[in-house]
Design brief:
This protein is α/β, with parallel strands linked by helices and 138 residues long. It is built from four helices and six strands.
């Protein structure tokens, strides 16, 4: 059985964590730290998108990773309308809700946005979010 090749993106307030997995095995994981000075340059979370994407793409290049081989890019789910836990494909509505911060602004909102943007550039890859931070199933 063949498993997909995945790029996982987890944006936080002062870091962006990424991982690449192939056939259920970790290829590499990196935590990219961002100084308060770097983050302070941006007026909003969404304004950080290009900066964080560039950092992600640089790490992939440094690891000689060919993004065109990805099957899916998965972003940390952000501040969305309440929903059940699970995996959701990023569509235009979900992307827009993350962008406008329908439930608030948080760095995790960039997860699905970055996944979607990178997936569109890769070609055949799909973009997903998993278990958005709004999940409450206690």
């Amino acid at each position: 059985m063949s498993y997909p090749k995945l790029l996982i993106i987890n944006p936080g307030s002062t870091s962006t964590k990424i991982g690449v997995y192939e056939d259920e095995k970790e290829v590499f994981v990196e935590t990219l730290r961002h100084s308060s000075e770097e983050i302070a340059k941006y007026n909003s979370i969404f304004d950080q998108k290009s900066f964080r994407k560039e950092v992600i793409m640089n790490i992939l290049r440094e690891n000689n990773f060919d993004v065109t081989t990805l099957d899916a890019i998965v972003g940390r789910g952000g501040m969305l309308k309440p929903m059940a836990g699970g995996t959701y494909e990023v569509n235009d509505e979900l992307h827009n809700d993350l962008k406008i911060g329908v439930q608030g602004q948080h760095a995790s909102n960039l997860g699905g946005i970055l996944a979607n943007e990178i997936a569109k550039e890769v070609g055949d890859a799909k973009a997903f979010i998993v278990d958005p931070v709004v999940v409450d199933e206690l």
